[in-house]
Amino acid sequence: MTRIGRLFDCLKRDGRKGLIAYLTAGDPSPDRTPALVEALVQGGADLIELGVPFSDPIADGPVIQRAGERALKAGTTLAGVLEIAGQIRQRSEVPLLLFTYLNPVVRYGLDRLAADAAACGIDGCLLTDASVEEAHGYVEAMHRHGLDTVFLAAPTSTRRRLELVARYSTGFVYLVSRTGVTGERESLSAAVAPLVRAVREVTDLPLAVGFGISRPEHVAELGRLVEAVVVGSAFVRLIERNSGNPLLEQELESFTSELKRGFGAHA
């Protein structure tokens, strides 16, 4: 079992909910990312999604797109993100999920990536644009090296697609709260609850909801439905606004704590 599996077992045992934090590795610079991850963990993040910057991020909204551009300009590569993960692992046991697109993975090599990711302490991988219908080879490569494979389920997913997501996912299933790209929203989509019910029918895996979550009240609302909540753009925007601020890590830790308190007694 990976750190991801152990985390969700622990959350269930303790009656708590998990906060999953996304950041774009290499933004504002590769050497600062480990400290930003440490700040997130200190603030209460239970699992970290390390985003690999990519030049054509079709699922990402403008905030994360800009972060990817900054990270690429800073020289961040997939190999560099693996090095960053190794640095994080030297000081922390927080579960790490590599969040990337298919193109960089294919160029790197599936089996090579799986081996290198496992060696540097990554626990799983999520390919945002991978077709679950054609995922067998990718899943086999990841599982050979003990990595979890997390897939996305969306409000538009058919029953057949949800069944495939359930079959190939390990660790947890990531539910996309709405159609469209990532980004902060004022309110949560009415599509979340029906999607949760549909996915519960096909899997016993823990569920995490992401896309559009930026406030403690969002966390509180979703915490009643699923095992974990994913926050991305809100963290990335804070990093963008404070990239030149020597107190960036403190700001990030404080905001993480504020979001985590949204779970209240369930945190």
Q: What is the CA-atom radius of gyration, in angstroms?
A: 17 Å
* Fraction in beta strands: 5-15%
Largest sheet: 9 strands, parallel
How many separate helices?
12
Report the uncertain regions.
180-187
Q: Biggest sheet, strands in spatial order?
A: 5-4-3-2-1-9-8-7-6
Give the SSE order as H and E letters: HEHEHHEHHEHEEHEHEHEHH
- Derived structural class: alpha/beta
Coarse shape: globular
* Number of E-type strands: 9
What is the residue-averaged pLDDT?
Answer: 92
What gap, in angstroms, lies between the N and C termini?
A: 23 Å
What percent of residues adopt helix (DSSP H or I)?
Answer: 40-55%
Short description:
With 267 residues, the protein is of the alpha/beta class.
